[in-house]
Amino acid sequence: MLADLAPVGVVVLRGERVESWHRVSYAVADAGGRLQHASGATRRPVFPRSAVKPLQALALLESGAARRFGLARAELALACASHGGEAMHVAGVRRWLGRVGIAPVALACGAHPPLHAPSAERLLAAGRPPEPVHNNCSGKHAGMLTLARHLSTPLAGYEQADHPVQRLVAQTLAEMAGVAVLPEPAIDGCGIPAFPLSLAELATALARLADPQGLSPARRAACDEVRAAMSAHPELVAGSGRPCTRIMTAAPEVVVKTGAEGVYAAALPEHGLGLALKVEDGGGRAAPVALLALLEALGALRAEARAALAEIARPDLRNHARQIVGRIAPAPGWPAL
Amino acid sequence: MLADLAPVGVVVLRGERVESWHRVSYAVADAGGRLQHASGATRRPVFPRSAVKPLQALALLESGAARRFGLARAELALACASHGGEAMHVAGVRRWLGRVGIAPVALACGAHPPLHAPSAERLLAAGRPPEPVHNNCSGKHAGMLTLARHLSTPLAGYEQADHPVQRLVAQTLAEMAGVAVLPEPAIDGCGIPAFPLSLAELATALARLADPQGLSPARRAACDEVRAAMSAHPELVAGSGRPCTRIMTAAPEVVVKTGAEGVYAAALPEHGLGLALKVEDGGGRAAPVALLALLEALGALRAEARAALAEIARPDLRNHARQIVGRIAPAPGWPAL
Predict the structure, then answer these.
(1) Is B160 near chain A, with CB under 8 Å?
(2) Residue B12: phi, psi to the nearest 5?
């Protein structure tokens, strides 16, 4: 199956009746850029958003910045994270910036309350406004600031498309995705360039992250280290209760990363495959359900992992009186891959 | 145009590129149940959710309960509300229940933090947990409790499908929608029965609310009073900054009500029409954009109202650094009605 069939669906059921319906497109590719499985709009550009953070972190390693500043795997995991702003995340980013000698005020990502609700409530109860370190992207930005320092370029403006940091990050992304020239970027939620890629290109990039044999030795080592960091610290890549963290905890052999607006990317080293999916309408609730349906169909999850992740694969929906009133599930018609 | 054409769309743009796409179905009917305009899946059942609150409030009036307990228009507006849990809403529901002699503990809707973020933050900062009166449906439940008292039935279990209150509310809904027998209900977010209706049926019910001439005198008076109450107190029907409130403030000649999972309903008395729409994927952000596109196409908004509502019709999207990074807008291809 090679392209642009009808997209598959994820349904939101109230009782046993469909209340809402999410259309999902996906691509599964190998490191040679060959599509192994695909459905829906796989050649149309999408914004991968945070799903490319593991790819954006490669330049931090490949450039020698990580080695020079002695970054630990925990810090590399934070560079790949859309974290919850929990104490472990915020303290980790502060410590990292402190060691490199960069003030947190240099972070250009803007502030938002921690994604982790109890952490947001604690901050509010303490009367403290959220700071840029609480932004889910603060680890990625710490990495970009570290790279700017390493390249001896000004820190100011590191988030701009024409800054050497963003040019290097974009070049690496293009090479991984097999794209000669990236389209003009839009602006991401945290202020950096948001480059569109097709799902086929994004899946190819993830396949090379999973299976970097054909890449240069430095790039290959960077890919191996990014995967190892994310697998070693799944709690830092997202946070308590979040799908990325729970999936990589239950299945350390896969590397998964969510992106805003219903994107998921995965690297499957045991299969030499990369996977990318997009929920057409941006509905984030459908993305982990679709991801697990695909990982199951690909045979990428062992039985214990499938059991541990059943609640993410088919989550129950409860109302305010805590009654179970429905569930989210793959729609009929997902192919057996 | 009479049925089941391709649904229209609402796009989420990042820069000038489509990031996400919401499919929308809609129906516009007259009080005779004739579809005047329609697109998408208008005969398939959807859950109208809170969009039927104005219809659920009719029995409160028609039964004589509102007159007997001296309900003011503000209280009728709260009965039709998905309110923000702001002070005006919470105090209004408390006062109402107090006058009828019902303890707030009788509310079966469950508790959730106020939808109005500053009110939720104040509650949290005060260390107080949310109570059922803060639930966006507490006014509807106060109305149902008042109806139970009026009917001399037990208050306990008033939210159950077989309770006389729910049977009367359901019978009124079926009659307004022109449905002989309602399908089996699921359970709504606040614990009451959630009956499926097609968009054509829901639009018909709204048309009869807008133009109740053909109904019994008591039902007609109830429809007139529900419309008058919502128009007189748009701030109570939703809350500060919310689309329903802003639309009815700018255009008191229309009555609009949102429902969860991307539903909107509207009664257009000047046109004798009812309108119902559903965002296929449940994406609430697309529903007000679609509603305004339809109201504009139908000529239901005067120039000043259109100007006042431009920000709802095509909202800008900002990132955490407060940059404008995109917008939500009707997709090309909406018909001129």
Answers:
(1) no
(2) -110, 115
**If DSSP codes are grouped into helix, strand and coil, which group holds residue B219?**
helix
B202 is written with which tokens? 């829901």
CA B311 vs. chain centroid, Å, equals: 20
**Mean pLDDT score across all residues of chain B:** 95
Distance of CA A205 to the CA centre of its chain: 13
- The C-alpha angle A278, A282, A286, rounded to 5 degrees, equals 70
Q: Which residues pair with A235 in a beta bridge?
A: none
Residues A21/A9, Cβ–Cβ less than 8 Å: yes
Q: Is A282 on the interface with B (CB under 8 A)?
A: yes
Longest Cα–Cα distance in chain A: 60
**Residue B208 carries which side chain, given as an amino acid letter?**
R
Tokens of A186: 């839009």
The sign of the dihedral angle between the CA atoms of A172, A176, A180, A186 is: negative
Strands A197-198 and A45-46: antiparallel
Residue A302: both structure tokens together? 């062992």
The per-residue pLDDT for range B123-159, each reduced to its tens digit, is 988 889 999 999 999 999 999 999 999 999 999 999 9
CA distances from A58 to A55, A98, B265 (A): 5, 22, 50
* Helix pair A164-177, A199-210: axis angle to 10 deg: 90
* B217 Cα to chain A: minimum distance (Å): 35
Under 8 Å between Cβ of B93 and B248: no
Burial B279-293 (b: 16+ CB within 10 A, else e): bbbbbbbbbbbbbbb
CA dist., res. A9 & res. A329, Å (int): 9
The CA-CA-CA angle for residues B70, B72, B74, to 5°, reads 155
A113 touches chain B (CB under 8 A): no
What the block records as the tokens of B214 is 């053909």
CA angle, B159 then B160 then B162, to 5°? 135
Rounded distance, CA B321 to CA B12, Å? Answer: 19
Surface of B (125-144) touching A: CB under 8 A: 125, 127, 135
State whether residue A166 is helix, strand or coil. Answer: helix
Tens of pLDDT, residue by residue, chain A (337 residues): 333 445 689 999 999 999 999 999 999 999 999 999 999 999 999 999 999 999 999 999 999 999 999 999 999 999 999 999 999 999 999 999 999 999 999 999 999 999 999 999 999 888 899 999 999 999 999 999 999 999 999 999 999 999 999 999 999 999 999 999 999 999 999 999 999 999 999 999 999 999 999 999 999 999 999 999 999 999 999 999 999 999 999 999 999 999 999 999 999 999 999 999 999 999 999 999 999 999 999 999 999 999 999 999 999 999 998 899 999 999 987 877 7
Closest partner residue to B320 (CB to CB) among A109, A184, A261 is A109
CB-CB contact of B93 with B78 (8 Å):
yes
User: Across chain A, how many H-helices and E-strands are there?
Assistant: 15, 12
Contact A320/B at CB under 8 A: yes
Residue in B285, B290, B254 with CA at minimum distance from that of residue B272: B254
Residue B27 forms beta bridges with which residues?
Answer: B38, B276
**B56: which 2 tokens?**
């659920």
CA–CA separation, A256 vs A288, rounded Å? 10
